[in-house]
Amino acid sequence: MKIGLYSITYLGVWYNGPALSLDELIGRARELGYDGIEIDGKRPHGNPIDVTPAVCREVRQRAAAAGMEIYAVAANNDFSSPMPEYRESQLLYIRDLIRMTAELGAPTLRMFAAWPGITRTPTGARYDVAEHLWHCAHEKFSSAETWDWCREGLSEAARWAGDAGVTLALQNHPAVILNGADMQRMIAEVDSPHLRACFDAPLARKQGETGATMREAAVSYGGRQALTHFGGEYEETADGEILGWVRARDGAMTREDFYREFLEGMADVAYDGYIGYELCHPLPLVDGTAAGMSFVDRNARLAARYMRRLIHEVEGARSFADAGSEL
């Protein structure tokens, strides 16, 4: 398994400070100890309006020169709208993102079924405004209707992805996909080899998976897992131990306690892809505004060390056990 950096971390959305350019992001990811980058499909990083074929060639060359793999692009799509004009505009966005993903040399485009969006404010981004609008737009329609619109959009996108040699990875993210079972059902109904899974442990934890069931949940995806993410905030103790935390929307912090079980499950199915770090939640306020770039840098650096150590321990223990069984 490899460690990646999802560019939402440095998009200038959640922290107080400017976004990094893609060139700066490549350098920062290398400096912080990552193996590759995932480019978010919105401005200023990866909206296909701006990322022309010429830009793709330039970014691809700079990443290769730095020894960094562009392992994925991330869509911010919503196929659930009751208005066909909205759904069709989203299809145009995805068709161009598939083009961009292929031209960047990335194998995977991460997808949502229905992404409500975010709202940017002087104190950092927030989810609640977009979520409220999304629910208002859907209140006169059944969940079955909304599900069908999402399935239709993903089915059409999967056909384009196959033509371009790109794999779509559906994330277990609300609003329509409420848990892992929903994601598995949607992938089964689309029934395309070009739509696979992006099963993320932090989301699964919020959806009811625990440390005891996370390994089983991860194994259930088998060879369908194409991409995954981790998140949270980190601190280093005086003796060098790195501790991970999850910050809830109300600011409460809880310890990470599920990644080892998740990685065990990924090792069980021989997953050898990327697990990408994302700092993508409201950050603590400092003098009334969100924490700054130094907070992001510290967490991204510690996150890479934290996850690399866990992967080393899990894969090392697996290799030792396999060697013992051969004896």
As a whole number of angstroms, the C-alpha radius of gyration is: 19 Å
The CATH superfamily bears the name: Divalent-metal-dependent TIM barrel enzymes
- CATH first level: which class? Alpha Beta
- Amount of helix: 40-55%
Number of helices: 10
Shape estimate:
globular
In CATH terms, what is the architecture? Alpha-Beta Barrel
Structure classification: alpha/beta
- Output mean pLDDT: 94
CA distance, first residue to last residue: 26 Å
Low-confidence stretches: none
What is CATH's topology name?
Answer: TIM Barrel
Largest sheet: 8 strands, parallel
Counting DSSP E segments of at least 2 residues, the number of strands comes to 13
Order of helices and strands: EHEHEHEHHEHEHHEEEEHEEEH
Overview of the structural elements:
The chain has 327 residues and is an alpha/beta fold. The chain has one domain: TIM Barrel, CATH 3.20.20.150. 45% of the residues lie in helices and 16% in strands. It contains ten helices and 13 strands. It has helices at residues 22-32, 53-65, 84-104, 128-138, 143-164, 180-190, 201-206, 211-219, 259-268, 293-326, and strands at residues 2-6, 36-40, 69-74, 108-111, 167-171, 195-198, 228-230, 233-236, 242-247, 253-255, 274-277, 285-286, 289-290. An eight-stranded parallel beta sheet has the order 6-5-4-3-2-1-11-7. The longest helix is centred in the last third of the chain and has 34 residues, at 293-326. The protein is globular, with a radius of gyration of 19 Å. It starts with a strand and ends with a helix. The model has no long low-confidence stretch (mean pLDDT 94).
